[in-house]
């Protein structure tokens, strides 16, 4: 399905106003070009194609490349390097959401220093997957400029609902629970709302 982002409506309104002005003055060729620009804006810049392949799994919340996967007992953490224009989507139905913001500095590159002193935002939430209760933590580490953040003030979020935006930087998502099965691999390209990260492994009795 294709989702039209709500914040992109302002840009669409501006393009429509320009088109009406050019049509009023009789510049019909220019009006046609403006309409093509509007279609391109809505299709390429203002919308996101989401095709969830495994709704019974925790999916990647953002487009990017998995830089590192850490497995520690009942916890799995994914470090995902975000691509440009990276919308952050809810990886599952989330509830009991809490968000914390850590003020700091902006760095050009990812390093231990930037991870400690850089701007960060944290989201902790709970979800249920195949009857198993899981804890999810999402950490956003922006780079360069702050064109990003997690939406504050929400206690619940439905699967694939937009929960934030990360332009350039790193996103870490950790899932804690029982019988976790890792489906993704390091250095693999993932797509927000589509690529599966973790599922519940069925234990045969």
TrEMBL record:
The chain crosses the membrane at residues 12-44. It comes from the Bacteria. Keywords: Membrane, Transmembrane, Transmembrane helix. This is Phosphatidylserine decarboxylase. The lineage of its organism: Bacteria, Pseudomonadati, Campylobacterota, Epsilonproteobacteria, Campylobacterales.
